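Task card 7
Instruction: Convert sequence to structure tokens.
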Amino acid sequence: MQLTWQSPGALSRTELCSVVETMYSLSYIYRATGERSFADRCEKTAFNALPVMVMPDWWSHQYVAQTNQPMSLPLARPPFRNVNGRGQTYGLEPHYPCCTTNHPQGYPKFLSASFVKVGPNGLGHALLSPGKVSTTLGQGNDNNVTVDCETNYPFGLLFLYTIETQRPFDFYVRVPEWYIAEDSFARVSSSDSEISKGLIVDPDPVTGMLHVAVGKGTTKITYKLGARIKIEPRMNGSIAIHHGALLYALEIGTATTSMPALDWRYQRRLPSNRVVPQVHDHIIRNTTVWAVAIDPSTLRFQTNTPESSETVERLPNPIFQEGAPPTSITGMACEINWGYHSKGVPKEPPGPGRHKCISDRFTVKLVPYGAAKIHIAEFPTANLPADDDDHLADQPVISSGGTGPQSPLAREL
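Output:
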């Protein structure tokens, strides 16, 4: 999946309206075709591309965003056709206000599409997230069913289902393509039996749905997905780094300047009778180095939740903000020369043989992309193996087709 939806390059941009409409389209296509790759891509968009373009309080947003955007400033020479110089800053209407009215539809429509009927007597959890549904099943729609899913997904991979039903029915839960079978499990217990039944997580190869036969009364399902770091090749030999449904980005130190909201067309301050006190425009500058190359062999996934835990702990709200997510990835990196396309917009990642380390190696922290309002998420690579005394745990990395490090060479605008 490409967050830009246009080309494999990090310089390409995506519009917030496009993100919201893509989520809806992908959820609809999954329901129509049953091909789980569309559901996977819908979640990837919902948990990465949407939250990164919206400030945590949801009062300001970007018009366009880039996968690599280490600062969010007004641009004297914007590289985007038909987008003004403030289009990638956060505000009430940084460009045409279609996104101002459109972006709040994203998550409500995602949640409304999360549960689906499967045949005459089946119910499926198609788009994974916390949620609860009450509906009727059966030929006569006379079986009242309630399903309550407690989870921290996509930050946690444990799902606790409580199901109430008057009669037996078929329940299904989607298993994403990225799951690791040997690290996944499902367990079912019911009110009429003291014995828990284990299930092998072996979903339908097309839909990704795992079938669970649910009996009359109360049924509880404990379902856990296994995931590993996944490396995705990008332009110029760069890489994107994923774990589960989340894309990870370099944690960059920030300095935010807030100001009264401006009119998108004339760049004048909006009259006070047209805005509420919560509305501001924001400029975000980097305070730490962003131009780095990473050694993918040193990447290690970190989580605040013990792997053996079978409880769902409450997450901070809002969760897509600096310092809030409970997961991260660490690795070894070095600073490199990485120029600008124009002031405020970095060039494409330099390819192999076109960059070299200009600093000693250091540890970097990657955080969920949606929480990193300025970010680097497509990285050049370097060979920076860990020392023997680093004691890094053995965590396999899969390859496929709060603040960052301080540096005297940090390029701050």
